[in-house]
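Following up on my earlier message about ketopantoate. Here are the inputs again, as you asked, copied directly from the submission form:
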Amino acid sequence: MAKIHILGAGALGSLFAVSLFRADINPCLIARDAERAMTLRQTGIRCGGASYPVDIAAPNALANKDIECLLLCTKAYDSLPALAAIAHALRPDAAIICLQNGIGQHAAIAEQHPAASVFAALCTEGVTRTGTGEIVHAGVGHTDIGQLFGPSKKLPDELSKQSLKVNFSTDILPTLWRKLAINGAMNGLTVIHDCRNGELLQRLDVYKELCALVEEIANVLNASGHVDASLDLFEQVRNVCQATAMNTSSMLQDFRAQRPSEREYVYGSLLRQAELAGLEAPMLKQLNQQLIRRETV
Ligand code: NAD
Ligand code: KPL
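Thanks, got it. Here's what our run produced:
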């Protein structure tokens, strides 16, 4: 079996690296540069009180055309520059599996890597980076992976033979849109109201806004042909708010830490669908503008 490479040694990349390592599937985790790779080799990847000596490489240490199967675990907006940094090592026909939130990066990757097989994933694991090489796996979830672009390719079975639950899907798009809809309903409002996920249901003013926003997102999905993703959307959103009530959404974490957020891959994608369907989507537009203003202050 070809070695599985993981690009992005952050929270999710490290989680997959540890899980594959524990299943004797010895992956290679690619750090951003030689200095970070060396530091991570010294610390190992630490999770749940143990340290795992995962194989760690810097982009410039990778052999030419060595990568056949890549788990892309950067944030969505870092996809293209991160892939460019390992271009020499990436086989043109590689499988690139985007384990990221958001929609939009897959098509951009497929455009730049036309011979590659590009996969998308819905991942509901909850993992946080707590220090250099250290992660906390707080929420056990699952990952559905399905192909979106490029020549049809079978992924290595080993990906599903690890402690993280991984399923292969033949129809990932509705799942992706549903997750995007849930992120679109929750993430922006948690930023604007600076609140945990559960508070979206508990504060009456916010709850009313959430209801109206979910209705608008469901209309956008319906009008743009993603009907499955729009069904029972409010129920789905309520379930996620309840199940993650004490959590801070990924977008609020990014805004609080003054890091770039995946706003464009959530709200940008929803607004493009609205435009294509000829819908106004005033709440989404306003929320997106409010987020842009907060990004730039
Ligand atoms: P993170 O910020 O912890 O990790 C991203 C990593 O990518 C960082 O270590 C960063 O240094 C690295 N990176 C950026 N540019 C790079 C480059 N050019 N070369 C090499 N590495 C580079 O983020 P995360 O929480 O792991 O999230 C990654 C993606 O997974 C996001 O799209 C997120 O929405 C999604 N996701 C995360 C979780 C979670 O629980 N953390 C769950 C589901 C989905
Ligand atoms: O995926 C999420 C995130 O924080 O990005 C949830 C938990 C659904 C909140 O939107």
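One observation from looking it over: Residues 4-170 form a domain with the Rossmann fold fold (CATH 3.40.50.720). Hope that helps, and feel free to reply on this thread.
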